[in-house]
Amino acid sequence: MALNPQITNLIIILGMMQVSKKIPFDDPQVLLGVRILYIVTNIIIAGLYLYLQNKINAKKDLTTLKYVEPAPMGSADEPKLITTTVHSYDLQQLRALWKSQLMGVGMMGVMHLYFKYTNPLLIQSIIPLKGAFEGNLVKIHLFGQPAIGDLKRPWKAAGGLMGMAGQGEPKSDKKSIEQAERSGSGGVKEE
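Request: output the structure for the sequence above.
Response:
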């Protein structure tokens, strides 16, 4: 039985916090080494995402994908029917991964360069790399796992703190799709 990725992240963070207390970040050589580690892991992640983009574009799976995207939590909007292709869906998910990674690098840059925090560099050298290799796109396009079960598109939104997502999960069952088509909230085609 595999551990939940959020639990393993918590274990890694707590362990690395203890390790980082023992690392002499005052030493310029050590600090340079940790900075290099952080940069190298981000280069690995960028390379992985570029490779995934090439694989997605090479496959160019034009299978139609219909799903009902739930309305944002607290919104009075109706759930929206989305009609797209597997290729477009995967590229959209990859764009979200790029955005998330760049936000993390930006936040780390502010924390390290402006506020002079050094301990998070070590943790942020491991957690994003681990998360990148646990992603659904990597499982399908890099490791060749079939898109069935938990890997069947559309994917559930990753739970936030304590597994609470900001909105419900997308529904791809026939009943939900027909209901969205009848309500007039459907037909949004994403290219």
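The chain has six helices and three strands.
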